[in-house]
Protein backbone atom coordinates (compact mmCIF):
# COMPACT_ATOMS: atom_id res chain seq x y z
CA UNK A 1 0.00 0.00 0.00
CA UNK A 2 2.83 2.40 0.93
CA UNK A 3 4.68 1.56 -2.30
CA UNK A 4 1.46 2.22 -4.23
CA UNK A 5 1.16 5.71 -2.66
CA UNK A 6 4.81 6.51 -3.45
CA UNK A 7 4.20 5.23 -6.99
CA UNK A 8 1.37 7.75 -7.35
CA UNK A 9 3.61 10.60 -6.10
CA UNK A 10 6.37 9.49 -8.50
CA UNK A 11 3.98 9.44 -11.47
CA UNK A 12 2.57 12.89 -10.56
CA UNK A 13 6.03 14.45 -10.11
CA UNK A 14 7.60 13.00 -13.24
CA UNK A 15 4.50 13.95 -15.25
CA UNK A 16 4.82 17.61 -14.18
CA UNK A 17 8.62 17.79 -14.67
CA UNK A 18 8.69 15.89 -17.95
CA UNK A 19 5.75 17.88 -19.36
CA UNK A 20 7.41 21.24 -18.60
CA UNK A 21 10.74 20.07 -20.02
CA UNK A 22 9.06 18.65 -23.14
CA UNK A 23 7.40 22.03 -23.74
CA UNK A 24 10.83 23.69 -23.39
CA UNK A 25 12.40 21.28 -25.92
CA UNK A 26 9.45 21.71 -28.29
CA UNK A 27 9.82 25.51 -28.13
CA UNK A 28 13.55 25.17 -28.94
CA UNK A 29 12.65 22.85 -31.85
CA UNK A 30 10.16 25.46 -33.17
CA UNK A 31 12.79 28.19 -32.78
CA UNK A 32 15.26 26.20 -34.93
CA UNK A 33 12.60 25.34 -37.53
CA UNK A 34 11.36 28.95 -37.90
CA UNK A 35 14.45 31.08 -37.18
CA UNK A 36 17.24 28.78 -38.45
CA UNK A 37 15.57 26.55 -41.09
CA UNK A 38 18.83 25.93 -43.01
CA UNK A 39 20.58 24.64 -39.87
CA UNK A 40 17.61 22.67 -38.48
CA UNK A 41 18.68 19.16 -39.59
CA UNK A 42 22.28 19.71 -38.49
CA UNK A 43 21.32 20.95 -35.02
CA UNK A 44 18.28 18.78 -34.24
CA UNK A 45 19.71 15.32 -34.96
CA UNK A 46 18.24 12.02 -33.74
CA UNK A 47 21.18 11.65 -31.31
CA UNK A 48 20.49 15.07 -29.80
CA UNK A 49 16.77 14.26 -29.46
CA UNK A 50 17.63 10.97 -27.69
CA UNK A 51 20.06 12.81 -25.41
CA UNK A 52 17.47 15.46 -24.53
CA UNK A 53 14.86 12.79 -23.69
CA UNK A 54 17.38 10.95 -21.48
CA UNK A 55 18.38 14.18 -19.67
CA UNK A 56 14.72 15.13 -19.08
CA UNK A 57 13.87 11.77 -17.49
CA UNK A 58 17.10 11.65 -15.47
CA UNK A 59 16.52 15.20 -14.19
CA UNK A 60 12.94 14.29 -13.17
CA UNK A 61 14.05 11.03 -11.47
CA UNK A 62 16.84 12.75 -9.47
CA UNK A 63 14.40 15.45 -8.27
CA UNK A 64 11.94 12.79 -7.15
CA UNK A 65 14.74 10.77 -5.47
CA UNK A 66 15.75 13.80 -3.36
CA UNK A 67 12.09 14.32 -2.40
CA UNK A 68 11.76 10.65 -1.45
CA UNK A 69 14.93 10.70 0.73
CA UNK A 70 13.73 13.82 2.57
CA UNK A 71 10.31 12.24 3.18
CA UNK A 72 11.63 8.88 4.44
CA UNK A 73 13.35 10.56 7.40
CA UNK A 74 10.00 11.98 8.62
CA UNK A 75 7.82 10.43 11.33
CA UNK A 76 4.19 10.42 10.17
CA UNK A 77 1.30 10.85 12.65
CA UNK A 78 -1.49 9.98 10.25
CA UNK A 79 -2.28 8.12 7.04
CA UNK A 80 -5.39 9.84 5.65
CA UNK A 81 -5.03 12.31 2.75
CA UNK A 82 -8.33 13.96 1.89
CA UNK A 83 -7.42 14.51 -1.76
CA UNK A 84 -8.23 12.94 -5.12
CA UNK A 85 -4.54 12.05 -5.62
CA UNK A 86 -1.51 11.66 -3.37
CA UNK A 87 0.60 14.83 -3.49
CA UNK A 88 3.97 15.12 -1.76
CA UNK A 89 3.00 18.28 0.16
CA UNK A 90 0.08 16.49 1.85
CA UNK A 91 2.36 13.63 2.89
CA UNK A 92 4.70 16.17 4.53
CA UNK A 93 1.72 17.75 6.37
CA UNK A 94 1.08 14.39 8.10
CA UNK A 95 4.53 14.52 9.78
CA UNK A 96 5.07 15.09 13.52
CA UNK A 97 8.81 15.81 13.08
CA UNK A 98 10.46 18.97 11.76
CA UNK A 99 9.59 19.59 8.07
CA UNK A 100 11.59 22.81 7.46
CA UNK A 101 14.03 21.20 5.01
CA UNK A 102 11.16 19.53 3.12
CA UNK A 103 9.27 22.83 2.82
CA UNK A 104 12.35 24.74 1.62
CA UNK A 105 13.21 22.05 -0.94
CA UNK A 106 9.54 21.88 -1.99
CA UNK A 107 9.47 25.61 -2.80
CA UNK A 108 12.90 25.42 -4.46
CA UNK A 109 11.84 22.38 -6.49
CA UNK A 110 8.62 24.06 -7.63
CA UNK A 111 10.50 27.12 -8.86
CA UNK A 112 13.09 24.88 -10.51
CA UNK A 113 10.39 22.87 -12.27
CA UNK A 114 8.85 26.01 -13.74
CA UNK A 115 11.85 28.35 -14.25
CA UNK A 116 14.41 25.93 -15.80
CA UNK A 117 12.10 25.04 -18.76
CA UNK A 118 10.80 28.63 -18.95
CA UNK A 119 14.21 30.05 -20.00
CA UNK A 120 14.40 28.20 -23.39
CA UNK A 121 10.67 28.80 -23.94
CA UNK A 122 11.08 32.56 -23.50
CA UNK A 123 14.28 32.54 -25.58
CA UNK A 124 12.59 30.63 -28.40
CA UNK A 125 9.48 32.79 -28.57
CA UNK A 126 11.29 36.14 -28.22
CA UNK A 127 10.80 37.04 -31.90
CA UNK A 128 7.11 36.07 -31.86
CA UNK A 129 6.73 37.90 -28.54
CA UNK A 130 8.35 41.02 -30.02
CA UNK A 131 5.90 40.96 -32.97
CA UNK A 132 3.00 40.42 -30.52
CA UNK A 133 4.10 43.37 -28.35
CA UNK A 134 4.49 45.63 -31.40
CA UNK A 135 1.13 44.66 -32.91
CA UNK A 136 -0.86 44.90 -29.68
CA UNK A 137 0.88 48.22 -28.92
CA UNK A 138 -0.35 49.70 -32.23
CA UNK A 139 -3.88 48.24 -32.04
CA UNK A 140 -4.42 49.06 -28.37
CA UNK A 141 -3.01 52.59 -28.78
CA UNK A 142 -5.33 53.39 -31.70
CA UNK A 143 -8.35 51.90 -29.88
CA UNK A 144 -7.47 53.79 -26.68
CA UNK A 145 -7.39 57.03 -28.66
CA UNK A 146 -10.84 56.14 -30.08
CA UNK A 147 -12.27 55.49 -26.60
CA UNK A 148 -10.67 58.69 -25.28
CA UNK A 149 -12.31 60.68 -28.11
CA UNK A 150 -15.71 59.17 -27.20
CA UNK A 151 -15.06 60.05 -23.55
CA UNK A 152 -14.30 63.68 -24.57
CA UNK A 153 -17.50 63.75 -26.67
CA UNK A 154 -19.59 62.68 -23.66
CA UNK A 155 -17.83 65.15 -21.32
CA UNK A 156 -18.35 68.13 -23.67
CA UNK A 157 -21.60 67.33 -25.55
CA UNK A 158 -23.49 65.35 -22.86
CA UNK A 159 -22.03 66.50 -19.49
CA UNK A 160 -25.23 65.67 -17.52
CA UNK A 161 -25.27 62.09 -18.85
CA UNK A 162 -21.50 61.52 -18.54
CA UNK A 163 -21.53 59.56 -15.26
CA UNK A 164 -24.50 57.44 -16.35
CA UNK A 165 -22.97 56.52 -19.73
CA UNK A 166 -19.27 56.24 -18.84
CA UNK A 167 -19.57 53.87 -15.86
CA UNK A 168 -16.73 51.79 -14.43
CA UNK A 169 -18.35 48.62 -15.87
CA UNK A 170 -18.45 50.16 -19.36
CA UNK A 171 -14.80 51.24 -19.05
CA UNK A 172 -13.82 47.71 -17.97
CA UNK A 173 -15.81 46.25 -20.89
CA UNK A 174 -14.15 48.62 -23.39
CA UNK A 175 -10.67 47.72 -22.10
CA UNK A 176 -11.48 43.99 -22.37
CA UNK A 177 -12.87 44.39 -25.93
CA UNK A 178 -9.79 46.40 -27.04
CA UNK A 179 -7.34 43.75 -25.79
CA UNK A 180 -9.45 40.86 -27.13
CA UNK A 181 -9.73 42.50 -30.57
CA UNK A 182 -5.94 43.08 -30.63
CA UNK A 183 -5.21 39.51 -29.52
CA UNK A 184 -7.51 37.95 -32.15
CA UNK A 185 -5.92 40.06 -34.91
CA UNK A 186 -2.46 38.96 -33.83
CA UNK A 187 -3.58 35.31 -33.56
CA UNK A 188 -4.74 35.31 -37.19
CA UNK A 189 -1.39 36.86 -38.22
CA UNK A 190 0.51 34.21 -36.24
CA UNK A 191 -1.49 31.32 -37.77
CA UNK A 192 -0.83 32.64 -41.29
CA UNK A 193 2.91 32.96 -40.51
CA UNK A 194 3.30 29.47 -39.02
CA UNK A 195 2.34 27.80 -42.32
CA UNK A 196 5.22 29.56 -44.16
CA UNK A 197 8.61 28.01 -44.96
CA UNK A 198 11.36 30.51 -44.14
CA UNK A 199 14.62 30.61 -46.13
CA UNK A 200 16.52 33.01 -43.88
CA UNK A 201 16.73 34.29 -40.33
CA UNK A 202 18.28 37.77 -40.62
CA UNK A 203 16.06 40.87 -40.40
CA UNK A 204 17.98 44.06 -41.12
CA UNK A 205 15.71 46.19 -38.97
CA UNK A 206 15.78 47.90 -35.59
CA UNK A 207 12.88 45.71 -34.39
CA UNK A 208 11.12 42.55 -35.56
CA UNK A 209 8.05 43.43 -37.65
CA UNK A 210 5.65 40.86 -39.12
CA UNK A 211 6.01 42.01 -42.74
CA UNK A 212 9.79 41.46 -42.65
CA UNK A 213 9.30 37.93 -41.31
CA UNK A 214 6.93 37.23 -44.22
CA UNK A 215 9.56 38.55 -46.66
CA UNK A 216 11.93 35.78 -45.49
CA UNK A 217 9.53 33.10 -46.77
CA UNK A 218 10.20 30.88 -49.80
CA UNK A 219 6.57 29.68 -50.00
CA UNK A 220 3.56 31.62 -51.34
CA UNK A 221 2.78 34.72 -49.23
CA UNK A 222 -0.25 36.06 -51.16
CA UNK A 223 -2.70 35.40 -48.30
CA UNK A 224 -0.32 36.99 -45.77
CA UNK A 225 0.12 40.12 -47.93
CA UNK A 226 -3.63 40.50 -48.51
CA UNK A 227 -4.41 40.03 -44.81
CA UNK A 228 -1.52 42.36 -43.90
CA UNK A 229 -2.99 45.19 -45.99
CA UNK A 230 -6.54 44.40 -44.78
CA UNK A 231 -5.31 44.33 -41.15
CA UNK A 232 -3.50 47.66 -41.54
CA UNK A 233 -6.63 49.31 -42.95
CA UNK A 234 -8.74 47.70 -40.20
CA UNK A 235 -6.33 48.87 -37.46
CA UNK A 236 -6.73 52.46 -38.66
CA UNK A 237 -10.37 52.58 -39.85
CA UNK A 238 -12.14 50.81 -36.93
CA UNK A 239 -10.85 53.33 -34.34
CA UNK A 240 -11.14 56.23 -36.84
CA UNK A 241 -14.97 55.97 -36.99
CA UNK A 242 -15.60 56.89 -33.29
CA UNK A 243 -12.79 59.51 -33.45
CA UNK A 244 -14.37 61.29 -36.46
CA UNK A 245 -17.87 60.94 -35.00
CA UNK A 246 -16.77 62.38 -31.63
CA UNK A 247 -14.87 65.35 -33.05
CA UNK A 248 -17.65 66.18 -35.54
CA UNK A 249 -20.06 66.43 -32.60
CA UNK A 250 -17.56 68.42 -30.49
CA UNK A 251 -16.90 70.81 -33.41
CA UNK A 252 -20.64 71.37 -33.86
CA UNK A 253 -21.01 72.24 -30.14
CA UNK A 254 -18.01 74.61 -30.38
CA UNK A 255 -19.48 76.45 -33.39
CA UNK A 256 -22.87 77.11 -31.77
CA UNK A 257 -21.64 77.34 -28.14
CA UNK A 258 -20.28 80.24 -26.09
CA UNK A 259 -16.66 81.34 -25.80
CA UNK A 260 -16.39 79.47 -22.46
CA UNK A 261 -17.58 76.24 -24.12
CA UNK A 262 -14.99 76.62 -26.90
CA UNK A 263 -12.20 77.24 -24.38
CA UNK A 264 -13.25 74.19 -22.33
CA UNK A 265 -13.36 72.01 -25.47
CA UNK A 266 -9.95 73.25 -26.60
CA UNK A 267 -8.28 72.63 -23.20
CA UNK A 268 -9.91 69.17 -22.91
CA UNK A 269 -9.20 67.95 -26.46
CA UNK A 270 -5.74 69.45 -27.17
CA UNK A 271 -3.71 66.69 -25.38
CA UNK A 272 -5.76 63.97 -27.08
CA UNK A 273 -5.40 65.54 -30.53
CA UNK A 274 -1.65 65.97 -29.99
CA UNK A 275 -1.33 62.27 -29.09
CA UNK A 276 -3.48 61.25 -32.07
CA UNK A 277 -1.52 63.33 -34.63
CA UNK A 278 1.81 62.25 -33.11
CA UNK A 279 0.96 58.52 -33.17
CA UNK A 280 -0.62 58.66 -36.65
CA UNK A 281 2.51 60.35 -38.03
CA UNK A 282 4.74 57.64 -36.46
CA UNK A 283 2.55 54.81 -37.81
CA UNK A 284 2.38 56.30 -41.34
CA UNK A 285 6.16 56.65 -41.49
CA UNK A 286 6.64 53.04 -40.30
CA UNK A 287 4.08 51.63 -42.78
CA UNK A 288 5.71 53.51 -45.67
CA UNK A 289 9.15 52.35 -44.55
CA UNK A 290 8.12 48.69 -44.32
CA UNK A 291 6.03 48.49 -47.51
CA UNK A 292 8.13 50.60 -49.90
CA UNK A 293 11.79 50.84 -50.84
CA UNK A 294 13.23 53.60 -48.65
CA UNK A 295 16.92 53.15 -49.43
CA UNK A 296 17.03 56.67 -50.91
CA UNK A 297 16.09 58.08 -47.47
CA UNK A 298 19.13 58.67 -45.20
CA UNK A 299 19.79 55.75 -42.83
CA UNK A 300 19.80 57.95 -39.70
CA UNK A 301 16.39 59.36 -40.63
CA UNK A 302 14.98 55.82 -41.02
CA UNK A 303 16.36 54.81 -37.60
CA UNK A 304 14.95 57.99 -36.05
CA UNK A 305 11.53 57.26 -37.61
CA UNK A 306 11.49 53.75 -36.12
CA UNK A 307 12.57 55.04 -32.70
CA UNK A 308 10.01 57.86 -32.92
CA UNK A 309 7.22 55.35 -33.57
CA UNK A 310 8.17 53.18 -30.57
CA UNK A 311 9.27 55.73 -27.96
CA UNK A 312 7.77 59.20 -28.45
CA UNK A 313 4.09 58.19 -28.18
CA UNK A 314 4.44 56.41 -24.79
CA UNK A 315 6.29 59.48 -23.50
CA UNK A 316 3.21 61.58 -24.34
CA UNK A 317 1.56 60.06 -21.28
CA UNK A 318 1.87 63.12 -19.01
CA UNK A 319 2.12 61.46 -15.56
CA UNK A 320 4.53 58.77 -16.77
CA UNK A 321 6.60 61.32 -18.68
CA UNK A 322 6.76 63.71 -15.72
CA UNK A 323 7.67 61.02 -13.19
CA UNK A 324 10.29 59.29 -15.29
CA UNK A 325 11.77 62.66 -16.29
CA UNK A 326 12.26 63.66 -12.64
CA UNK A 327 13.64 60.27 -11.52
CA UNK A 328 15.88 59.77 -14.54
CA UNK A 329 17.18 63.35 -14.37
CA UNK A 330 18.17 63.02 -10.69
CA UNK A 331 19.79 59.64 -11.30
CA UNK A 332 21.64 60.94 -14.36
CA UNK A 333 23.06 63.77 -12.27
CA UNK A 334 24.21 61.19 -9.69
CA UNK A 335 25.94 59.07 -12.36
CA UNK A 336 27.53 62.17 -13.91
CA UNK A 337 28.90 63.22 -10.51
CA UNK A 338 30.39 59.73 -10.04
CA UNK A 339 31.89 59.96 -13.54
CA UNK A 340 33.48 63.33 -12.64
CA UNK A 341 34.82 61.85 -9.39
CA UNK A 342 36.56 59.03 -11.30
CA UNK A 343 37.93 61.44 -13.94
CA UNK A 344 39.41 63.86 -11.35
CA UNK A 345 40.28 61.64 -8.37
CA UNK A 346 41.17 58.36 -10.13
CA UNK A 347 42.24 59.37 -13.69
CA UNK A 348 44.46 56.31 -14.16
CA UNK A 349 41.59 53.94 -13.29
CA UNK A 350 38.88 55.86 -15.21
CA UNK A 351 38.78 53.69 -18.36
CA UNK A 352 38.91 50.46 -16.34
CA UNK A 353 36.06 51.49 -14.01
CA UNK A 354 33.81 53.44 -16.38
CA UNK A 355 33.50 50.90 -19.20
CA UNK A 356 30.80 50.91 -21.90
CA UNK A 357 29.20 47.83 -20.24
CA UNK A 358 29.01 49.62 -16.89
CA UNK A 359 27.49 52.71 -18.53
CA UNK A 360 24.88 50.53 -20.29
CA UNK A 361 24.12 48.77 -16.98
CA UNK A 362 23.72 52.10 -15.13
CA UNK A 363 21.35 53.43 -17.81
CA UNK A 364 19.27 50.22 -17.63
CA UNK A 365 19.14 50.34 -13.81
CA UNK A 366 18.09 54.03 -13.84
CA UNK A 367 15.20 53.42 -16.25
CA UNK A 368 14.13 50.21 -14.48
CA UNK A 369 14.18 51.97 -11.09
CA UNK A 370 12.09 54.85 -12.50
CA UNK A 371 9.62 52.48 -14.17
CA UNK A 372 9.13 50.36 -11.01
CA UNK A 373 8.50 53.52 -8.94
CA UNK A 374 5.91 54.70 -11.46
CA UNK A 375 4.31 51.21 -11.58
CA UNK A 376 3.81 51.20 -7.78
CA UNK A 377 2.27 54.70 -8.01
CA UNK A 378 -0.04 53.55 -10.81
CA UNK A 379 -1.19 50.43 -8.88
CA UNK A 380 -1.95 52.54 -5.80
CA UNK A 381 -3.92 55.01 -7.93
CA UNK A 382 -5.98 52.37 -9.76
CA UNK A 383 -7.59 51.21 -6.49
CA UNK A 384 -8.96 54.72 -5.79
CA UNK A 385 -12.50 55.89 -6.55
CA UNK A 386 -12.35 59.33 -8.20
CA UNK A 387 -15.14 61.89 -7.65
CA UNK A 388 -14.00 64.37 -10.29
CA UNK A 389 -12.07 64.67 -13.54
CA UNK A 390 -10.90 68.32 -13.61
CA UNK A 391 -7.33 69.22 -12.62
CA UNK A 392 -6.76 72.96 -12.53
CA UNK A 393 -3.07 72.71 -13.34
CA UNK A 394 -0.85 73.24 -16.38
CA UNK A 395 0.17 69.55 -16.31
CA UNK A 396 -1.21 66.35 -14.79
CA UNK A 397 0.61 65.62 -11.53
CA UNK A 398 0.00 62.43 -9.53
CA UNK A 399 -0.76 64.30 -6.28
CA UNK A 400 -3.60 66.22 -7.95
CA UNK A 401 -5.07 62.96 -9.29
CA UNK A 402 -5.02 61.55 -5.73
CA UNK A 403 -6.79 64.71 -4.46
CA UNK A 404 -9.76 63.88 -6.72
CA UNK A 405 -10.38 60.61 -4.81
CA UNK A 406 -13.36 60.01 -2.51
CA UNK A 407 -11.81 56.84 -1.00
CA UNK A 408 -9.04 56.64 1.61
CA UNK A 409 -5.72 57.99 0.26
CA UNK A 410 -3.52 57.41 3.34
CA UNK A 411 -1.35 54.77 1.63
CA UNK A 412 -0.97 56.97 -1.49
CA UNK A 413 0.06 59.99 0.60
CA UNK A 414 2.58 57.98 2.65
CA UNK A 415 4.07 56.40 -0.46
CA UNK A 416 4.05 59.81 -2.19
CA UNK A 417 6.15 61.34 0.60
CA UNK A 418 8.39 58.26 0.76
CA UNK A 419 8.80 58.28 -3.05
CA UNK A 420 9.67 61.99 -3.08
CA UNK A 421 12.32 61.51 -0.39
CA UNK A 422 13.63 58.44 -2.24
CA UNK A 423 13.76 60.32 -5.56
CA UNK A 424 15.92 63.03 -3.99
CA UNK A 425 17.98 61.12 -1.39
CA UNK A 426 19.02 58.02 -3.39
CA UNK A 427 20.78 60.09 -6.10
CA UNK A 428 21.95 62.69 -3.53
CA UNK A 429 24.21 60.19 -1.72
CA UNK A 430 26.57 59.53 -4.68
CA UNK A 431 26.45 63.25 -5.62
CA UNK A 432 27.56 64.34 -2.12
CA UNK A 433 30.13 61.53 -1.92
CA UNK A 434 31.61 62.44 -5.34
CA UNK A 435 31.85 66.19 -4.74
CA UNK A 436 33.26 65.70 -1.22
CA UNK A 437 36.09 63.64 -2.73
CA UNK A 438 36.57 66.17 -5.56
CA UNK A 439 36.67 69.06 -3.04
CA UNK A 440 39.29 67.24 -0.97
CA UNK A 441 41.48 66.75 -4.06
CA UNK A 442 41.07 70.45 -4.95
CA UNK A 443 42.13 71.58 -1.45
CA UNK A 444 45.34 69.52 -1.38
CA UNK A 445 46.09 69.65 -5.13
CA UNK A 446 47.87 72.18 -7.29
CA UNK A 447 46.35 75.23 -9.00
CA UNK A 448 46.19 73.29 -12.27
CA UNK A 449 44.24 70.48 -10.58
CA UNK A 450 41.74 72.99 -9.14
CA UNK A 451 41.25 74.62 -12.57
CA UNK A 452 40.73 71.20 -14.19
CA UNK A 453 38.20 70.21 -11.51
CA UNK A 454 36.34 73.55 -11.89
CA UNK A 455 36.10 73.19 -15.70
CA UNK A 456 35.09 69.52 -15.53
CA UNK A 457 32.50 69.82 -12.74
UniProtKB/TrEMBL annotation:
It holds the Pfam family 7tm_4. The keyword Membrane applies. One of its GO terms (cellular component) is plasma membrane. Its main location: membrane. PROSITE patterns: G_PROTEIN_RECEP_F1_2. Keywords: Cell membrane, Disulfide bond, G-protein coupled receptor, Glycoprotein, Membrane, Olfaction, Receptor, Sensory transduction, Transducer, Transmembrane, Transmembrane helix. GO terms for molecular function: G protein-coupled receptor activity; odorant binding; olfactory receptor activity. It is found in: Cell membrane. It is a multi-pass membrane protein. Coiled coil: none annotated. PANTHER family: G_PROTEIN_RECEP_F1_2 DOMAIN-CONTAINING PROTEIN (PTHR26451), OLFACTORY RECEPTOR (PTHR26451:SF885). This is Olfactory receptor 10A5. It comes from Merluccius polli. The gene is OR10A5.
